[in-house]
Structure formats: C-alpha cells, structure tokens
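User: Reviewer 2 asked us to show a designed sequence for the structure in our supplementary figure. I'm pasting the structure tokens here. Could you produce the per-position amino acids so we can include them in the response letter?
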C-alpha cells in the first residue's frame, strides 16, 4: 500500500510539473505571437511618397492655384493632415492651414509623368480657415 501511494504521489508530482512547464510554454507562445509586429512592408504601385507631395501645388476645380503642400501631419502612425501654404505672393503674407487628406485629390498622370493635386475649395475659404503656426514642438 505504501508503494502504491508513493507511485501515485510521484505520478501526481510529475503531472503537476509537466502541466506547469506546458502551461508556461503556451503562455510564452501566446505572448510571443501577440507581441510580434510587422517591420517591413512593400510599397504598392498606388502608394504616394511624401517627396511626391511636398511642394506640390494645389488647384481648385477652376484650375486656380490655391496653395502648396508644405508638410504632412502624422498622428499615431497615420497621415492625418496636409499643411498647405495659402495666400501671399512670393512667400510674403503666406499662412498655413491644415486640411484633411481626403479633401485633396492627388493623382499621377502616366502620360505626363507628373503628380497633381486638386481641392474643391476657394482662395477665400482657405483664407478664412484656422491658421496653423510652426511654433512650440513644431517650430522649424
């Protein structure tokens, strides 16, 4: 009887150790799987590079130049705004406004090999828009 109890205890201890090791390895596997992240991506042919946007003139539907893309606003890893330089002449009197990316349609012409940007707005509407200032943490 003593031998049976001893063997039963050995089996229970072995089972406890095995389940502890197995449980720990499963917890590690779950943690490793959930913390893994994608580091490298492949740029798609339809993607736009920031260098294609910066300096691009923005026209309205009447083909008037209404601004120039000067900068990009990135929030939490995603493009959240385009900073446009509006108004002024030869850099004098210009001001900056931030517009939502969907408000500006950016296209590439395969025939001309050029990028263009259009926005359904007017110069007056952009002049009345809230001003963005390069100051504080955004100071250049």
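Assistant: Here is a per-position design you can include in the supplement:
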């Amino acid at each position: 009887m003593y031998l049976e109890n001893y063997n039963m205890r050995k089996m229970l201890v072995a089972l406890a150790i095995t389940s502890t090791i197995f449980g720990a390895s499963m917890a590690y596997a779950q943690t490793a799987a959930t913390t893994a992240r994608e580091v490298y991506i492949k740029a798609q042919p339809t993607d736009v590079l920031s260098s294609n946007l910066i300096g691009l003139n923005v026209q309205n539907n009447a083909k008037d130049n209404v601004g120039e893309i000067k900068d990009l606003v990135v929030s939490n890893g995603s493009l959240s705004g385009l900073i446009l330089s509006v108004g002024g002449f030869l850099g004098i009197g210009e001001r900056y406004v931030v517009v939502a990316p969907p408000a500006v349609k950016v296209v590439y012409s395969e025939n001309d090999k050029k990028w263009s940007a259009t926005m359904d707005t007017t110069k007056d509407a952009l002049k009345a828009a809230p001003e963005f200032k390069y100051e504080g943490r955004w100071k250049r």
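For the response letter, you might also mention the following. The first strand starts at residue 57 and ends at 59. The chain has two domains: 1-37, 50-135.
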